[in-house]
């Protein structure tokens, strides 16, 4: 592998604060064009923009859609090949985490991870026979625990009860 020369110019991204200042100075039409160009550039950008424009106003409906996706993927989960099942479960978790990032809500994180963990627990034999899936399961329970700690006390109680049920393996 060739080393970089010291005099080569590197393109560095500016800070979010600098981006914000520049965006505030742009005319509305130009800002819309930039957003559309950004949406065309990468699929995840388009998905985030879709969420912000169409789904952010209805968080319960959005969570129900993501839960329905999780359910559908677990229904199609083939348990004959452990390798493919693990790969599919990791894919479901990756997409679930993407939707959690979109919402930027601890409540949504708890709801979706609890739902994912419940569905994973129903996989029963697969969860018990695979050390990797067992580790993944307990890692999600720890993430849920951390998110619950950030909630109001009233909500903590309800979520902790659900978490305790999931922790009993």
Descriptive report:
The longest helix is centred in the middle third of the chain and has 22 residues, at 82-103. The protein has two domains: 14-57; 58-167. Helix 6 runs parallel beside helix 9 (153-167). It has helices at residues 16-25, 28-41, 43-55, 59-75, 82-103, 106-122, 125-129, 131-149, 153-167. It has nine helices and no strands. The protein has 169 residues and is an all-alpha fold. This is CHAD domain-containing protein.
Q: Which residue ranges are poorly predicted, with pLDDT under 50 across at least 5 consecutive positions?
A: none
- Helical fraction: over 70%
Strand content: under 5%
Strand-pairing-aware structural class: mainly alpha
The figure for the number of domains is 2
Overall pLDDT level: 87
Largest sheet: none
The tally of beta strands, per DSSP, is 0
Can you count the helices?
9
Protein name: CHAD domain-containing protein
In summary, what is this structure?
It contains nine helices and no strands.
Give a quick set of tags describing it:
single chain, 169 residues, mainly alpha, 78% helix, CHAD domain-containing protein
Summarize the topology:
Elements: H1 16-25, H2 28-41, H3 43-55, H4 59-75, H5 82-103, H6 106-122, H7 125-129, H8 131-149, H9 153-167
Helix pairs in contact: 2-3, 4-5, 4-6, 5-6, 6-8, 6-9, 8-9
């Amino acid at each position: 592998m060739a080393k970089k020369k010291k005099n080569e110019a590197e393109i560095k991204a500016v800070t979010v604060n600098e981006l914000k200042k520049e965006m505030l100075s742009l005319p509305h039409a130009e800002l819309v064009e930039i957003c559309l160009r950004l949406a065309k550039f990468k699929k995840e950008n388009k998905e985030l923009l879709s969420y912000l424009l169409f789904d952010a106003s209805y968080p319960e409906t959005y969570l129900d859609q993501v839960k329905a996706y999780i359910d559908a993927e677990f229904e199609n989960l083939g348990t004959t090949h452990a390798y493919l099942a693990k790969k599919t479960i990791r894919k479901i978790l990756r997409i679930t985490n993407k939707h959690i990032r979109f919402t930027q809500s601890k409540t949504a994180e708890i709801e979706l991870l609890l739902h994912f963990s419940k569905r994973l627990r129903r996989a029963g034999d697969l969860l018990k026979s695979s050390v990797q899936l067992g580790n993944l399961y307990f890692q999600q329970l720890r993430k849920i625990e951390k998110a619950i700690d950030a909630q109001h006390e009233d909500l903590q109680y309800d979520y902790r009860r659900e978490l305790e049920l999931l922790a009993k393996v």
